[in-house]
Amino acid sequence: MNRAGAPLFENVAGDIGVSFEFFPPRTEKMEQTLWESVQTLAPLAPRFVSVTYGAGGSTRERTHNTVVRIARETDLTPAAHLTCVDATREEIDEVARGYWEAGVRHIVALRGDPSAQGSGFCAHPGGYANAAELVAGLKRVAPFEISVAAYPEIHPDSPTKAADLDNLKRKIDSGADRAITQFFFSPDAFFRFQDEAAAAGIDAEIVPGILPVSNVAQTRKFAASCGASIPRWMDDLFEGLDNLPAARQLVAATVAAELCARLYAGGVRHFHFYTLNRAELSYAICHLLGLRPKTGEQENAA
Questions:
Q1: Catalytic residue among 10, 21, 90, 205
Q2: E strands of 236-289, at which residues?
Q3: Is residue 21 flagged as an active site residue?
Q4: Helix, strand, or coil here: 194?
């Protein structure tokens, strides 16, 4: 994959680790789609699968139910998202203890978004003030494996890149095992961030978060809330495809797979996919990178 002029996916080794993110379903139909996606992606033997937590803790029960079901009904390693928003330390610690008792050993610890759109984050008077405090609190509850968020293009609430890196270092120093980045669309953005993090004394694993874009309008909304930039060339690629979902899927897979291939060429071996509860794009990209189901697992998952 490094030789100039060689096909981008020639002789891929499949020596990658992947993880997948899902969100808790709101309806019976969405739940069916989620579980079909889980079953499709499970044969790729992900390191873990995470389940998001809605703004203001709005999906607390649904997140818990989905995580526990994954733990009980599959061989996958579930990771539960947990935030600081609108809850006391005692309430958050209780949720964490519930996860530990249910066999969940991995938490994605986040500051979280406020429940009211457009309002700034304000820590609960009796709660954890930020993600670093949350990480430390979770470690006091139980020896969880903990992932935290990182922002290659700077968190919208951070005044400077240095302040953003300082915040990430505090999370790692508080006990986090790895950072998973927000999505991005330029490999250079990730490699620069890796270098900046290393220069700031951050030596934990940093996993790139990959969002295969199937809905440009939705992606613009996501990007505006998390500080990611959508390059003009990518906007142009999706122009005219609003009513052609199959064509959008092909373009989305191509763009995301090329990004992953370039990250792979730069030494990246672990990828975290934001699936939006759909398996096809993430599965196709993993396939292009040489990742295949273990013998017999695909049949067993069917």
A1: 21
A2: 270-274
A3: yes
A4: helix
